[in-house]
Design goal:
The chain has about 500 residues and is an alpha/beta fold. About 40% of the residues lie in helices and about 25% in strands. It contains 19 helices and 19 strands.
Length: about 500
């Protein structure tokens, strides 16, 4: 059993966690839910004995007797060595477990352990992935590699920080099943999640956090059926709410056109897209499993993945494949907002200065004019003004995501690419970001939006949906038709899995 008693963590005199009690037992799933910045991750990391730099910590943390606590972070790229292949990373963990075997048997035994852990983490193509570097994996694949590391370590407690972030419905369903199996083995699971469907399907106990404190706790079923705190009710209400609107496809002049696009990683073809168009004032949602090619498509459009053939046209003119060969106007025209907003900012410079820099570099504004426009844009999108004068570490994930949107909008783009930007956010913050995107489309008819998402509810914001499976464009059409009357078998299974995950939630 692991336990936290009266934990308080202060940074610069401000309590980020205050008076938290947490007890996790073998074979049980304990979930921490709450808004971005509520203290979930700080509490989870306390079980590993890790705290933010310069933190003042009081309280007591008890870990299992062998001290083995595995951690699956929200942004797995931060803990995967970018210079080493996946196979090397995992074999380093497996080798100590086979030392008692005869030397000749160790490589085979270690490989079997690694492949079993990858399979347990829902990476069925594990043998192929062993040869890749972390940057050649999707965010969802990286997440599952880190889960495989925790399973290889033989941890008695697993802290899973947003383990389904960036995952498609079918993969999310499999990870729910896997975490349930982990708990069934007698391993305690601490689930930090904004995804209330996943929490409802898995958790035995739930703690609701806000501003560093636990405002409500109890059995999962009771919290769902009879929440007592206002903040718990707000989270549930935002989760049950539908999209800002059901968009209807409209005729629009083409802004972006894709023709015969084929992208590769090394010698492996990872994406084929014969034809796609995006009109002014239109939102195109690109959906599919983790690893299906969604982010590769987005990176090709933005010039971040140059290893492709075919054409990408902006207003009828071909865009250079590499970002380095695009002039200032074309750089400004296609802007990319990343899933991991924190990694997209320099951690040492104020957020306001970084947002303003976009207008200086891409539009030629002077520093003062750019700062004024950045301040006005940030004020409109939501991050508190005093926080934007601080470095990114002072902002929550949702606030940073809004700042990343502001930075992209300061370029005055023709095409805005949003790559899973709501996947790591709580229900209330996610709803605010979707309302914001809906407002950006409604404000004028010039902006075109590419929405990369695994979440079909988020995809309802779009006018049209494109479905990718194993690198192939298998279906596209008006959003309402694709979601309610899918034609391709994979799309049918994708929409069906979303419904089944909700039905699997505990009463």
């Amino acid at each position: 059993m692991a336990e936290i008693r009266d934990l308080r963590v202060e940074i610069d005199g401000r309590a980020v966690v205050d008076g938290v009690h947490l007890r996790v037992s073998p074979g049980r799933v304990t979930a921490l839910v709450g808004a971005s910045g509520s203290g979930k991750t700080t509490t989870g990391l306390a079980l590993l004995g890790e705290y933010p730099p310069g933190a003042r910590v009081t309280g007591e943390v008890r870990r299992p007797g062998d001290g083995r606590v595995g951690y699956v972070p929200q942004h797995p790229a931060a803990v995967l060595n970018p210079a080493r292949r996946v196979g090397a990373l995992l074999h380093d963990i497996a080798r100590p477990q086979v030392r008692r075997l005869p030397r000749a048997e160790r490589p085979t035994a270690a490989r079997e352990l690694v492949l079993r852990a990858l399979d347990d983490a829902q990476l069925t193509d594990g043998a192929a992935l062993l040869r890749r570097f972390p940057h050649q994996l999707s965010g969802g694949q990286q997440q599952r590699v880190v889960l495989a590391q925790a399973l290889l370590l033989g941890a008695r407690v697993v802290v899973a920080d947003e383990p389904t972030t960036g995952q498609d419905p079918s993969t999310k369903s499999r990870i729910v099943e896997q975490l349930a199996e982990v708990a069934a083995r007698g391993i305690a699971v601490v689930l930090l999640s904004h995804d209330l469907d996943v929490v409802r399907a898995l958790a035995d106990e739930v703690l609701v956090m806000r501003a560093g404190r636990v405002v409500e706790s109890g059995p999962a079923g009771r919290l769902w059926s009879a929440p007592r705190h206002e903040w718990t009710r707000r989270l549930l209400d935002a989760h049950r709410a539908g999209p800002p609107r059901d968009a209807v496809a409209v005729a629009a002049r083409p802004v972006l056109t894709v023709r015969d696009l084929t992208a590769v990683h090394g010698t492996t073809t990872v994406l084929r897209t014969p034809h796609l168009t995006l009109g002014a004032g239109e939102c195109l949602a690109v959906v599919g499993r983790s690893g299906s090619g969604k982010t590769t498509l987005a990176r090709c459009l933005a010039g971040l993945h140059r290893h492709h053939t075919g054409e990408i046209l902006l207003d009828g003119t071909a865009l250079p494949r590499s970002l380095r060969r695009r002039d200032r106007d074309r750089l400004a025209a296609v802007q990319y907002v990343f899933q991991d907003a924190r990694a997209a900012f320099d951690e040492f410079r104020p957020v306001l200065a970084q947002v303003a820099r976009t207008a200086v570099r891409l539009r030629g504004l002077d520093e003062r004019a750019a700062t004024d426009e950045a301040s006005a844009t940030l004020a409109r999108l939501g991050p508190p003004g005093d926080l934007t004068h601080r470095p990114p570490g002072a902002l929550s994930g949702g606030e940073l995501q809004r700042a990343a949107l502001a930075r992209a909008l300061l370029a005055r783009p023709r095409v805005l690419i949003c790559d899973e930007i709501t996947s790591g956010l709580d229900t209330v913050t996610r709803r605010g970001i979707l309302d914001l995107l809906d407002g950006l489309l409604s404000d004028g008819d010039d902006l075109a939006l590419v929405l990369i998402t695994h979440d079909l509810d988020t995809a309802r914001l779009a006018h049209r949906i494109a479905v990718l499976e194993a690198g192939e464009l298998v279906e596209q059409g008006p959003a309402r038709r694709v979601l309610t009357a899918p034609r391709h078998p994979f799309t049918v299974s994708l929409t069906g899995t979303t419904a089944r995950l909700g039905e699997a939630a505990r009463p």
